[in-house]
Amino acid sequence: MNVLVVVDMQKDFIDGSLGTKEAVAIVPAVIGKIRGFNGLVIATRDTHGADYLETEEGKHLPVVHCVKGTVGWQLHPDVEKAVREKKESRIIDKPTFGSVELGEYLRRLNESEPIDKITLVGLCTDICVISNALLLKAYLPEVPVETDLSCCAGVTPQSHDQAAEAMKMCQIGIV
């Protein structure tokens, strides 16, 4: 089985409080990747509470974003539609960069139905995509993990490229 992890394709990261033109530009490619994917599709949602600015993350990134239930927290509507159209799909809310729930879920799944490959796409390459790629390598060290950079964007183009180089060094395939 193959798994596609669609990381944090939410309004706040696309064209909201932390949006970028690069994030907007990848939306059609991500939708195409989801629709053309044969396997399990899992979308993550960065999920914070009203106390975000008092959290450790909020102290380092003092921009309120992805507060549960707000418009900015929602997946891009076309991305969500593509995910929900898949026979096998799931949405996981995550309170921090890397999702322990995602790692544990895929480890359990791999025990009953071996995973052939995990592909990551989404936002932001240099924060949540790389965090989840490394986390999945730790949970499933014998499963190939790759990132499709044509479906990713970073905080800046430079930090996107730096994240790609770091992932290569950690044996995460780059497409």
Structure summary:
With 175 residues, the chain is α/β, with parallel strands linked by helices. It is built from 7 helices and 6 strands; from the N terminus they run E-H-H-E-H-H-E-H-E-H-E-H-E. It has a 6-stranded parallel β-sheet, with helices on both faces.
Task: Name its key features.
175 residues; alpha/beta; six-stranded parallel β-sheet; 6 strands; 21% strand; globular
Account of the protein in words:
This protein is an alpha/beta fold. It is 43% helix and 21% strand. It has 7 helices and 6 strands; from the N terminus they run βααβααβαβαβαβ. It has helices at 11-14, 21-36, 56-60, 77-85, 100-112, 125-139, 157-169; strands at 2-7, 40-46, 89-94, 117-123, 145-153, 173-174. Strands 3-2-1-4-5-6 form a 6-stranded parallel beta sheet, with helices on both faces. Strand 4 (117-123), helix 6 (125-139) and strand 5 (145-153) form a beta-alpha-beta unit. The longest helix is centred in the N-terminal third of the chain and has 16 residues, at 21-36. The two termini are 19 Å apart. The mean pLDDT is 97.
